[in-house]
Amino acid sequence: MSGSGPASKESRNLATLLAHHRIDLVFDVGANIGQYARRLRRAGYAGRIVSFEPQAAAHAALAGAAAGDPGWDVAPRVAVGDSDRPVTLNISAESDMSSALPFTAEMAELLDSAAYSGTETVPQARLDALFDDHARPGDRVLLKSDTQGYDRQVLDGAAGVFDSVAAIQLELSIVPVYVGEPSWREMIDHLETLGFHPALFIPGYFNRRTARLIAMDGVFVRPAP
Fold it and tell me: What's the rounded Cα separation, in Å, for the pair 143 and 126?
């Protein structure tokens, strides 16, 4: 399944990076309804994708989106994080804004259309406990995490498999959106300590009311040996 419409320049750049680093397996953490995987397919990425999504409604839509693509698997519903304790999600009217963390006061006012409408308690698991269920020996893995402020917890829960991860893609908040999330500078510095260096930045949400870029994606790779 290739999706519809042409790939954006940003998606083509990402696909070029994946090809250059011989990525053949993408862990799509925080997949929502499959937007990221569909963009990868439109840009020409033909390798395997494993998507993880905790929200019930989004997970059902995600499974439907992946159904016609034999290289795209959807894991059972789970929040990927830093423990095996259940976590409560704040469910947003815009499902891709749902998070285990609350909005900051500034963002709650600015993003009023994304206000929380309820909660869901879901199982949580560490990625290093799930990794071998999906990865094969020799896979070149990109870990993509877009978990609305919870990405540091995702990284902490992947500590046991970093040697098997070739690249990491994270959402980086320039303006704090969720209470307790690390800043973009902190995340870049943390990835540096893990041995991953920036290779690509992709602009994300630009808020027209404030004329500010709120977030961007960063893709980080291990340097060639």
Answer: 13
Q: What is the CATH number of the domain that holds 139?
A: 3.40.50.150
pLDDT value at position 194? 96
Q: CA–CA separation, 225 vs 212, rounded Å? A: 38
Give the count of beta carbons closer than 10 Å to the beta carbon of residue 103: 24
Distances (CA, A) of 109 to 94, 95, 113, 125: 15, 17, 9, 32
Token duo for residue 111: 């993003």
- Which range of residues forms the domain containing residue 155? 9-221
Residue 4 pLDDT: 58
Query: What pTM value is reported for the model?
Result: 0.94
| Distance separating the N- and C-terminal Cα atoms of the chain | 35
What is the Cα–Cα distance from 100 to 102, expressed in whole angstroms? 7
Tell me whether residue 4 is in a domain: no
pLDDT tens digits, 194-206:
999 999 999 998 9
Share of the chain above pLDDT 70, in %: 97
- Within 10 angstroms of residue 57's Cβ, the number of other Cβ atoms is 13
DSSP letters of 120-180?
EEE-EEEHHHHGGGT--TT--EEEEE--TT-HHHHHHTTGGGGGGEEEEEEEEESS--BTT
Length of the chain: 225
DSSP state of 192: H
**Cα–Cα distance measured from residue 69 to residue 23, given in angstroms and rounded to the nearest whole number:** 18
Count of structural domains, the chain: 1
